[in-house]
Write a structure and sequence with these properties.
This protein is α/β, with parallel strands linked by helices. Helices cover about 35% and strands about 20% of the residues. It contains 15 helices and 18 strands.
Amino acid sequence: MSQHRRRSSARNDIRTRWLIVLVTAAVVLVGLGLGLSTGKGAPPGTSAHPSDPAAAAAPSPTPTRTYPLSTAPRTIPAVQDHSPARGPGWRPEQGRRVVVSDAGLADEGRLIAGELGLTYAGEKGDQRPGDLRLALSGAEGANRESYTMTVRDGRVSISAAGEAGVFYGTRTLKQTVHDGGTAPEGVVRDGPAKERRGLMLDIARKHFTADWIEDRVRELGDLKFNELGLHFSDDQGFRIESDSHPEIVSQQHLTKAEVRRIVQLAESRHITVVPEIDSPGHLGAVIAAHPDLQLRNAQGVAATGAVDIANPAAGKIIDELLDEYAGLFPGNQWHLGGDEYRALMASDPAASYPQLAAAAREKYGAGGTVADLATGWLNDRAATVRAHDRTPRAWNDGFYAGTSVQPDKDIQVAYWTGKEIGARLPVEYLRAGRQVINYNDEFLYYVLGQPQTFVYPTGERIYEQWTPRVLRGTQPVAARYDGQILGGSFAVWCDLANSQTQEQVAAGIRMPLRATVQKLWDAGEPDLSWAEFRTLADQLG
């Protein structure tokens, strides 16, 4: 064969191979629904010559879109578990429905529908594209605050054993789609580590408006808190309207109508309002109208804020108030106070207050002490609220060591400090089998004006150092007591009431609240750094 013919043959082989490549490429492109040239503006899957009848009659194949594996929603508090999946996820769109499986979920359905711009359609059994369905699972014995949120096939379903769990699922969804976000494909299984997650407000020393308190209720609900404490009686003021004793009410106060509105809003967010009339100390506002009730020492010097617990009239007026407000606060919790009773802050209570020592001996025998008498007072008040089906709690310094009279077993310990006279470690209460709620003043006390040794707590310190087992100081109690620690509460105290406006208080507690609920929802090490958590909080608003 000549050299020329060999070159010609080689060129033909090259042309043949290129032709095969081009044909193969064309077949692949057609298989994807794409022409070799679609023309300017022609959408994928259409011919460049739409007037060709044959081309119009032959439908182009539609490619199957693939999605990356989804990631967990970014929320505060973080969800406990997310099973990822592939899919487009879900976003709210006008005209999409919220449907419920049970009429009892109407409030939750209407709320989330209004928040996301959806249509509340009520109880429906059918399915439509884009639906958000809320359902009660009927699972007996399940945690009523736990929930499952499933995003699949362009729909969302939220189910739980209780209405509270469904509500928390809607809070997760609301945060996830905030500011144009998409709820990721997959299944969220979530629930709280601790059953009590609270904010306590001292509205006795500082008057907060009803509107401001309602704003806090909405904020707490979105963060999955479930408790709002109202300390409304103290030396500086008595801040809720009273029918039984109007003479004790401060000029600036909440009306009962305003309180009912707050309570109703809280109930719609599955928040229990926990009232507190602190006694037998911190009753200065009551004493101002009833000076005959004030405790005096052997020299006749008045004990600030303390009533004489040997005087039956003192117990009578407090019980009348407890009975009255039981009708205003329908929740199942009640805070009795019990802290800082002046008589028991004296070095020798029996010598300083001989009338109390005499009353104790008369009631409890020769060995009766002032601490026994104070414990009896606490038990009597507990019996009053228990008659209204309330579970009582009291500050830890209202429980005294070495008494013959023991506090009733069902009185929960609100542990706030280890600074009181005769301070006992938290483990002493836990060993006695008591249930405890964490109010650790080292982390969770926001005291206006920062008196004494208090400093405004930071969210960062709570986030990085505190857990529900850190009841006192910075050291946690043993893990075996975890089940007795019901939860915790951040507390706002208004010792120097004019140090901040209520708007400054709201701003100051914003990040501490978010850090607190994160650690109450999941006491483990957070996945996000503090900087990431703070950024997320800013994004969520």
